[in-house]
Specification:
The chain contains five helices and twelve strands. With about 220 residues, the chain is an alpha+beta fold. Helix 2 crosses helix 3. The strands form three sheets. Strands 1-2-5-4-3-6 form a six-stranded antiparallel barrel. About 35% of the residues are buried. The longest helix has 24 residues. The chain binds zinc ion. The site of zinc ion has 6 residues, from helix 2. Zinc ion binds next to helix 2.
Length: about 220
């Protein structure tokens, strides 16, 4: 199952019931915290005022690791607050990686998508191509990416049956994000930048490329 955060990435505050507590960890009846997965780091924020240090997926559940043992009991109603600055950064970064991939599609042959990693300072996108990539390609990649951003292209997401996704050769599969997903799910989540890129992805995204802002390709390796 995909995180609710991916479906409604604009929610920053929610209430939920505590369903399990163990030491510093809490599970909730529902959560809009994004668990670390597929290259996107976990959300920051608080649950009932206690700092959330890590959010992780475990056996299909989302586990919130708190800084200190909370004074809570199963059945309590709590308020979760998601750090807006960091989430917006992740949404922009995730969307930027798709936009860059779309640009790479127009530049390179036999393009493969190995996933990506968002850190607080930069994003690493793993692409593979049979073409030799030189400095001029990198400049062009950056130019095309920023052009697509300024085009203000709508970004949308939806779930489709796995078979439909697998039959569409235009869909990029992020091997990290989709790890295990194809085998134990009947649906796959697609993120589409209108007229530019379509990828299977469970992360959080902006709804228009203009929200990404300027992208600089720092280096290649
Ligand atoms: Zn994504």
């Amino acid at each position: 199952m995909y995180p609710q955060a991916a479906e409604k990435p604009d929610i920053r505050e929610f209430t939920a019931e505590v369903t399990a507590i163990e030491d510093n960890t809490v599970q909730l009846s529902e959560t809009y915290f994004y668990p670390a997965s597929g290259g996107q780091p976990a959300d920051r924020g608080t649950i009932s005022g206690v700092t959330v240090e890590m959010v992780a997926k475990s056996d299909g559940s989302i586990i919130h690791h708190l800084r200190s043992e909370p004074e809570l009991a199963v059945g309590d109603t709590v308020t979760g607050r998601i750090d807006d600055t960091f989430r917006v950064y992740c949404m922009r970064a995730h969307s930027a990686s798709h936009t860059l991939y779309g640009a790479a599609r127009t530049l390179f042959n036999e393009l493969g998508y190995g996933g990506f990693e968002i850190t607080p300072e930069k994003i690493r996108v793993d692409l593979s191509t049979e073409d030799a990539v030189d400095a001029a390609d990198v400049v062009e990649l950056e130019r095309l990416t920023n052009q697509a951003i300024w085009d203000s292209r709508p970004v949308s997401w939806r779930e489709v049956p796995v078979s439909e996704a697998q039959n569409n050769e235009n869909i990029a599969f992020n091997t990290q994000t989709e790890e295990g997903v194809m085998t134990d799910q009947s649906a796959v989540r697609l993120v589409e930048i209108k007229g530019w890129d379509i990828a299977a992805c469970g992360g959080t995204h902006v709804s228009n490329t203009i929200e990404i802002g300027p992208v600089t390709v720092l280096n290649r390796s």
